[in-house]
Amino acid sequence: MQVAFSKVDDGRLCAWTARIPKRRPLPGTTMASGRDLPHDLAQFVVESTLGLSSGFWGLLAMGATFESVRRRPTNPGRRVIRTHHAALVATEHVVNGHVAAWRAKVVTPAGSALDEMLVRWRSLPVGEELLVEWTSPPAGFNARRRASPARASRPATPPR
After folding, report:
1. What are 68-118's pLDDT values in tens digits?
2. Residues paired with residue 30 on neighbouring β-strands, in sequence order
3. What is the 3 state secondary structure string of the chain?
4. 1, 60 contact by CB (below 8 A)
5. What is the side-by-side order of every strand in the sheet holding 13-19?
6. Confidence check: pLDDT of 8 > 70
7. For a Cys staple, 133 with which of 64, 123, 153, 156, CB 3.0–4.6 Å?
8. Residue pLDDT, tens place only, 116-139
9. On the CB side of 120, how many CA atoms lie within 13 Å of its CA?
10. 42 Cβ contact list (under 8 Å, min separation 6)
11. pTM of the full predicted structure?
């Protein structure tokens, strides 16, 4: 899955769109850019860096249909969320802890990846896209048959 983050409204806001192979693009929420990294971008960095495959981004890649994604919820998408709900909540807490530590200048395993993404985000011109990659679910995965964990990897860094 490829996710394109972009600055909108003169850089005050961040929007994203997820592009999952063989599916229509999924437009996500638009949020405040914040003083450093927008929430969803920081979440992506921590989940992918730490290999947290049952968080928001891993479940989205597995076919989850969250209310925050402007797409009609589906039964298979809801099933992915139900199956991984406890891990999803736990992942959110882990991510928030790492982001808070990073903001407080406390060492965290995700710190260098967050630092690198902050440089990329700040240098991104308004209206252009910052592209990151999430490894798709394993070959043969079918959310209708079962909800098994996806494998996450570090975000791909496009040539600068």
Report:
1. 776 677 788 889 989 999 999 999 999 999 999 999 999 999 999 999 999
2. 15
3. CEEEEEEECCCCEEEEEEECCCCCCEEEEEEECCCCCCHHHHHHHHHHHHCCCCCHHHHHHCCCCCCCCCCCCCHHHHHHHHHCHHHHHHHHHHHHHHHHHHHCCCCCCCHHHHHHHHHHHHHCCCCCEEEEECCCCCCCCCCCCCCCCCCCCCCCCCCC
4. yes
5. 26-32, 13-19, 2-8, 129-133
6. yes
7. 156
8. 999 999 999 998 999 999 975 443
9. 24
10. 36, 95, 99, 114, 117
11. 0.81
Planar angle of CA 17, 7, 27, nearest 5 degrees: 15
Where is pLDDT greater, at 152 or 56? 56
The token pair at 153 is: 């990897």
Across-strand partners of 95? none
Task: Note whether 154 and 48 are within 8 A (CB).
Answer: yes
Return the structure tokens found at 94. 């882990």
The amino acid present at 143, given as its one-letter code, is A
Both structure tokens of 35: 């003083």
Q: What is the average pLDDT value for the chain, to the nearest integer?
A: 83
